[in-house]
Amino acid sequence: MKSVKITAAVALVALGACTDPATLASQTDPNKNTKQGALIGGIVGAGVGAIANDSDPGLGALAGAAIGAAAGGIAGNQLDKQAAELRQQLANDGITIVNQGDRLLVSLPSDITFDTDSATVRPALRSEVNKVAQNLLRYPDSTIQVVGHTDSDGDAGYNLNLSERRANSVADILQAGGVTYNRITIIGRGEEVPIASNLTAGGKAQNRRVEIYIIPRKS
To answer: Where is the OmpA-like domain (predicted)?
Structure first.
């Protein structure tokens, strides 16, 4: 019976967070990630609440789910809003912004950001990275991961070093724009995490990139 109560509580919150599953699944819904955040927060909160309330796990699950849904919805709404602002502010169509539900991913293709074999950000892209920095100042309650990637051409050790230097260059512009050092983590991945095939020129171009992950801090 306890399991039934917990499951029912989670289901109630899930329904409250999103009454239209088709809308939740839609990639064009501007509130998609708010709803997903509420749904995920409700499920996690239900589990925590059930564990915390030994005398009545069902009641604890319901309370925990409600709190978790509210917190998840707030975080999702902030990410939706921040992503919309970034899309409006950034002028270069080559830069992509993806809301992954629990974080934002801003991807800078290396072909438009750096010259070949260089870790110096091109002047035209410096202004775009600075716009990201200004956006981050308006949303201070987050941490940032700057991750560099390369294709598989050349020596793996050299590629790893180049990816880290490129990530550092982007992070330097963010810091120069006012983003504090303690918010930023710099990571070089080299050729380890391709997102396309390294057997084609187009795939290699996609793999050469610097990614900026914007991750809301958990309260």
So the answer is: 101-218
Helix (H) or strand (E) holding 70: helix 57-89
pLDDT at 160: 98
Q: Is 122 helix (H, G, I), strand (E, B) or coil?
A: coil
pTM of the complete model beyond 0.90: no
Contact 79, 216 (CB under 8 A): yes
Which pLDDT tens digit goes with each residue over 194-212?
999 999 999 999 999 999 9
Token duo for residue 218: 């958990």
Q: What is residue 218's predicted lDDT score, i.e. its pLDDT?
A: 82
Positive/negative CA dihedral, 189, 111, 132, 24: negative
What DSSP assignment string belongs to 133-190?
HHHHHHS-SEEEEEEEE--SSS-HHHHHHHHHHHHHHHHHHHHHTT--GGGEEEEE-T
- What the block records as the tokens of 159 is 């590629």
